[in-house]
Amino acid sequence: MSFFITRFDPGAKYEGYNQFDCQHAVINKFVKDSLKKQVKQGLSVAYALLEEDGATQRFAGFFTIASHTIALSALGALQRGGLPKTIPCVRLIMLGIHHADAGQGLGLQLMNHALDIVKVGAQSIGSYGLYLDADAGAFGFYQKLGFVPLEGDKSPAPSPMFLPMSSIP
């Protein structure tokens, strides 16, 4: 059995998709009610983490990203002179790993894939970095990756965080 990441196809039938449970109600609801629809509408792009076991490919996780803008004033500690009032960036909308697959480094694997996509995209379209709203349980994970809290740790509410392009390895 091995895991791989591929572009999410909203028309495909992924084994285990309807049973996906990352033990986070908002993310689970997003997968069940909105993921396919948002990708079909072009509001975001999603990548699926699939576990391959013979002829079977089980849906084990995902992330979604989209173009975004953020106000310069929201960047607080990251502000640098000469920037416009509205900053182009990429937003990591959702990321989830099925609870049975947690603790295997798969979240990091998904994040590294997302960062690679952000780097490649920034070479074609201007982007100042990657923005996300970190849930309380993920705040430390994103901080270890170099994301800077824009308003501090707002737990239990989501905490806005930003990773400038200059900090993406």
Instruction: Give the number of helices.
Output: 4
Question: Quaternary arrangement of the chains shown?
Answer: single chain
The unreliable regions are none
Structural class: alpha+beta
Look at the structure and give the mean pLDDT: 94
How many angstroms separate the termini?
A: 29 Å
- The residue fraction in helices comes out at 10-25%
Q: Please outline the major beta sheet.
A: 7 strands, mixed
Total E-strand runs: 7
Shape: globular
Features:
169 residues, alpha+beta, 7-stranded mixed beta sheet, 4 helices, 7 strands, globular
Task: Please describe what this structure looks like.
By secondary structure, the chain is of the alpha+beta class. β4 (86-97), α3 and β5 form a beta-alpha-beta unit. The protein contains four helices and seven strands, in the order βααβββαβαββ. Helices cover 24% and strands 34% of the residues. The model has no long low-confidence stretch (mean pLDDT 94). The chain starts with a strand and ends in a 5-residue tail after the last strand. It is globular, with a radius of gyration of 16 Å. Strands 1-2-3-4-5-7-6 form a seven-stranded mixed beta sheet, with helices on both faces.
